[in-house]
Amino acid sequence: xxxQLSQNLESVFKKLRGHGKLSETxxxxxxxxxxxxxxxxxxxxxxxxxxxxxxxxxxLGAEVLRSITPGQQIVKIxxxxxxxxxxxxxxxxxxxxxxxxxxxxxxxxxGKTTTAAKLARNLRKEGRQPLLVACDVxxxxxxxxxxxxxxxxxxxxxxxEGNQNVVKIAQxxxxxxxxxxxxxxxxxxxxxxxxDKDMMGEIAQLQTALKPAETLFVADAMTGQDAVNAAGTFAxxxxxxxxxxxxxxxDARGGAALSVREVTGQPIKYVGVGEHLDKLEVFHxxxxxxxxLGMGDIVSLVEKAQMDIDAEEASKLEEKMRQNTFDxxxxxxxxxxxxxxxxIGDLISMIPGVKGIKDVDIDxxxxxxxxxxxxxxxxxxxxxxxxxxxxxxxxxxxxxxxxVQDVNQLLKQFQSMRKMMKKFxxxxxxxxxxxxxxxx
Length: 440
What we know:
By secondary structure, the protein is of the alpha/beta class. It has three domains: 3-86, Four Helix Bundle (Hemerythrin (Met), subunit A), CATH 1.20.120.140; 100-293, P-loop containing nucleotide triphosphate hydrolases (Rossmann fold, 3-Layer(aba) Sandwich), CATH 3.40.50; 303-439, Signal recognition particle, SRP54 subunit, M-domain (434 Repressor (Amino-terminal Domain), Orthogonal Bundle). The protein is 58% helix and 9% strand. It has 22 helices and eight strands. Strands 3-2-4-1-5-6-7-8 form an eight-stranded mixed sheet, sandwiched between helices. Strand 5 (214-220), helix 10 (225-237) and strand 6 form a beta-alpha-beta unit. 38% of the residues are buried.
């Protein structure tokens, strides 16, 4: 996520920190490189001009130039300006009305339908009762897709076969929401390959008829300035209240994230960070700015751990460690919980001080091999690794598609880890969960 931009900015910061004192020339040179990094990241050129101008003006202040660490002061200014550019504060959904109506709009291929399901899932986790409404009547696959996603999540989907009047479909869905006991109605609208009058007219009709609490523009972050330009056009034609950026996990440049709020005047409310239905996150400007500048995002990391790690399992694990009875079955369960939190690369990128994932030696496939080896063992072998003689190890290697040396290495490392259990036994649960998976 925004990896290339982070690396480019970090190289600028290294040069700034290398100067004991800064001059106007040093700062101008640095701002030129910041401008280049942002333009390469596909940030809107008007946004870049305003952003760099503001940083340069503040960086030339006497309190910065006379500072003991002027380079760090400028990094601090850039961090603050990034937060401002991204929206300053987190803006939640407006869910007034009974039911609250959320209208999702955007171009075809931006991920509206999947985002509708992800949003419904998030709202249900918050205690809401969502109803999905299929109003993309021109693309039958969109209706089918929404029905499939709704079934996966056990969330109701309202459709009307043969009816192409989207206003009447949406109005009927709102009336039917009582039958579903729904208090939030999410309307998935039709998109086009490009902005046209028919699409805008249809959205305007829906807004007038439904008076939605939220009209959210869904934009594909990977399309960069195309997404930003489309967002600006939508903002001129209809009354947007916010933006959802999809596919941010695959966007190496990140220009859309840094431009869309400035262009539309509306906040980014959610970001899609993966294909799975649990990969829609509330957008936090300060956390995003920190991650872009390599400062990490420890708050999101802790929240993710609290959400994905089973408290009861953690308690059992603590007791096993105190009694030094931790076995390979337990280790397998820990790997499973670790994987549920996302890729190791994403998790490590949230740790302050980690500048770029390329600087860290991470072999995601190694965890898969370890899991395959443990899965090839019997329950007795997992609980009593000491019974693993040569023939058993050979069988496990064949069953897991690995080599005997891989099995031996796993067992050797596991035994080394068990010797450390007495040290871990005195730690609290958070320390245990932090040290166990990453320490192996």
